[in-house]
Design a protein that fits this description.
By secondary structure, the chain is α/β, with parallel strands linked by helices. The chain is built from nine helices and ten strands.
């Protein structure tokens, strides 16, 4: 897992949990132990992009897991609640990212907007940070979308606005959520290992995912179907052809299931 985290207070619980050791201080504070790497980027888009690019130089294998973890404001969720970014917006760009949600967890999935300045206004069902969009954009090409995820812990909301927030409270917000975060990390690392062992599955999944919009459930179904087809010795190129002919994500899933059914029965 490659952690990209903005501030030391956000990083410290992760450093302690995984017993990471400091490797270097420049150009960014960098920690590592075994397959876990962490870089502290500081606040903002440019610093985040540079930190991701720095961490890329420490990775030689494709399809590794990446996570942007930290605090965020939110218009609906309670202080200390962890959420997953299912859609990532930016106040300077119309481009949005949709991290596929294929993992089992109890965290709410919500939209997250990356802002140029700290936001003191809140809209329902919307989170606010200053790094996630730049993080996701920078990782593109180094790993797949399902292996690039953003997890945030709510630090401020309409009932407890940013003006009342103290940075010294950050570790105490993240620490109670470490068990759930660690389980999420474990699932990502498992998928990463599988994709490194089966790169053709990853390539087909990514191609099909880019052809249509898939809900979280259908993204999960698609990933399972591609893996099953590969295990059955079926042509993954045929899956791409099926997807190209389908009108939407729902039809892709239905048509792949129909195509695979005779082979499942024979076995």
């Amino acid at each position: 897992m490659n952690f990209v985290i903005a501030f030391p207070g956000e990083a410290q619980p992760i450093i302690e949990f995984y017993e990471l050791q400091k490797v270097s201080s420049q150009p960014f504070p960098y920690y590592q132990k075994d397959n876990h790497k962490l870089v502290i980027s500081a606040m903002g888009r440019e610093q985040t992009s540079q930190a991701v690019n720095f961490l890329k130089t420490k990775n030689v294998s494709p399809n590794q897991a990446w996570m942007n973890l930290g605090i965020a404001g939110h218009g609906s969720l309670e202080i200390g609640q962890t959420f997953i970014a299912g859609k990532i917006e930016d106040d300077l760009s119309e481009n949005c990212f949709y991290p596929p949600q294929i993992y089992d967890h109890d965290f709410p999935v919500t939209c997250l907007k990356t802002c140029s300045q700290p936001s003191s206004s809140y809209e329902p069902a919307l989170g606010y940070d200053m790094e996630a969009h730049a993080f996701y954009a920078a990782v593109v090409g180094a790993s797949t979308r399902e292996l690039t995820q953003v997890i945030k812990v709510v630090s401020d909301n309409p009932s407890s606005p940013l003006s009342q927030f103290s940075p010294k409270d950050v570790p105490g917000l993240i620490e109670p959520n470490l068990k759930g975060i660690a389980l999420f990390v474990e699932q990502m690392e498992k998928i990463s290992l599988e994709m490194q062992q089966e790169p053709e599955v990853s390539n087909t999944y990514e191609k099909v995912l880019g052809m249509h919009h898939f809900s979280s459930t259908r993204s999960h179904q698609l990933h399972d179907l591609v893996r099953q087809a590969n295990a059955l010795g079926l042509s993954l190129g045929e899956i791409e052809s099926i997807a190209q002919s389908a009108k939407d994500g729902a039809q892709v899933i239905s048509d792949i299931k129909h195509w695979m059914e005779p082979n499942r029965q024979l076995r």
